[in-house]
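Late entry, written up from scratch paper. The run itself happened at the end of the previous shift, but nothing got recorded in the book at the time, so transcribing now.
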Amino acid sequence: MSADTKLIARINYHVSFMVAVELQQVTKLFGRFAALRSVSAEFSSGRCYAIFGENGAGKSTLLRVIAGLAHPTSGKIIFSGPQETLRHRIGYVAHASMLYDEFSAMENLRYFGALYGIKDEQKFAAAIRTVGLDPKLERRAGDYSQGMRQRLSLARMLMHDPEILLLDEPFSNLDVTSARDISTLIGKLRDAGKTILVVTHQVSNVAGVADHSLLFSQGQLLRCESGIAAAGPGTPDTSSGEGVAR
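Output as recorded:
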């Protein structure tokens, strides 16, 4: 495929799946470096999208521009629903946990909840239980295992019940059991009508939940396929789980 080829990822969705996010020829430049090059795609509610590609392909930048953490150099991002509530309708989990190590799980959610104007202790506790943690646990997040930290990051994302979920490498450094639990949670959230984008190198962890997959390379969208087909047979899968913390 030539460098100037522009691929529009359009999938024939069932009529019950509303397009939640649409990208129109989105380009993101960092100086002379093009992190995204004329990317056009649609993402629907109740669907999970696996985002594949080598390091530096533009996967994380894609999530950041959708989350509003980076502004496109050119192109448009169109969201369904009222724009004034957009901030509350997007949930984002970065590759780094972004937790406060000196706080407990509840204290972390109280802090981040204040940024959204949320003070409901029951919402915090419910989000923590949803990811399989105990809201009564007073242990500092800094003492959590990697799997527990990842779960708490997901709880932070879920506490305001966003419609669009953006997950950057949620299976990184997890053992097989923890990765399977998070994959199961992603499936439940998709079935609840969420729009979910998952950036991952670990193909097998999204095999059971991804409705569609996109393959990026050098900032370009190369393929968009059903299931995990965009990964291709040669895509490495680093989800063995050996030597990682639960």
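Residues 1-15, 239-246 have pLDDT under 50 and may be disordered.
(Scratch paper discarded after transcription.)
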